[in-house]
Write a structure and sequence with these properties.
The chain is an alpha/beta fold and 184 residues long. It has a single domain, classed as 3-Layer(aba) Sandwich (Rossmann fold). The protein contains four helices and seven strands. The chain is globular. The termini are far apart. Bound molecules: S-adenosylmethionine (SAM). S-adenosylmethionine binds next to strand 2.
Length: 184
């Protein structure tokens, strides 16, 4: 109800053009359906008036959201967590989510290399071996997370996706299994 009132009030108007951006079309039309078809449980980090409908792409228990800001909960899924993503495993045990989408959060609250490092350490703890991490970020807002070494412990799934006339890119990563136990 609160969401409907906010939408009727026009809070989404400044973001209406987002729908037509090639990077958003890729997220909604390719990446999220790809995750839905492969992963039982997906966590989408960071909610906004232009992300609430992503839940409709998933089965009822297949999608959850998380945002640090209380006020962002109105745009969250039925399963929504109010917390910093750096504390994800306080709320759900490691391996609970098969995939995490971290889109537009680096550079929008998680800004310094140290904050980013804590975030990726927590995501490595939270994801199961072969868990999927989608990182959507803007090349003009901060250093390349890969160059900062934040992708250590993950393997790339495919090449980085770029979009003409946009700074937004996607990296799809797969969490590496732990090193095998070696006999003495
Ligand atoms: C640009 S907005 C929305 C991003 C959205 N995921 C998207 O696809 O565009 C960034 C959001 O990230 C949230 N955020 C910032 N730092 C966070 C953190 N440490 N943990 C969880 N959410 C965070 C903010 O509250 C904000 O709602």
């Amino acid at each position: 109800m609160q969401r409907l009132l906010l939408l009727a009030y026009g809070v989404n108007r400044p973001y209406e053009h987002f729908r037509d951006l090639a990077s958003r079309l890729c997220l909604e039309g390719e990446i999220l359906p790809w995750l839905r078809d492969r992963c039982g449980s997906v966590l989408f980090v960071g909610t906004a008036s232009y992300t609430w409908h992503y839940e409709t792409l998933f089965a009822a228990d297949g999608y959850a959201t998380l945002d640090i800001a209380d006020g962002a909960a109105v745009w969250g899924a039925r399963r929504h967590i109010v917390a910093p993503v750096q504390e994800l495993t306080r709320h759900h045990p490691a391996g609970f989510f098969d995939a995490v989408v971290l889109n537009g959060v680096l550079g929008f609250g998680i800004d310094t290399p140290q904050q980013m490092r804590c975030t990726f350490e927590e995501l490595r703890r939270a994801l199961p071996p072969q868990g999927v991490l989608v990182v959507g970020w803007n090349t003009d807002r901060h250093e390349d997370p890969e160059a900062l070494g934040l992708y250590d412990g993950f393997e790339r799934s495919g090449e980085r996706r770029f979009f003409a006339d946009e700074t937004h890119v996607y990296d799809v990563l797969v969490s590496s299994p732990p090193a095998p136990l070696t006999g003495r």
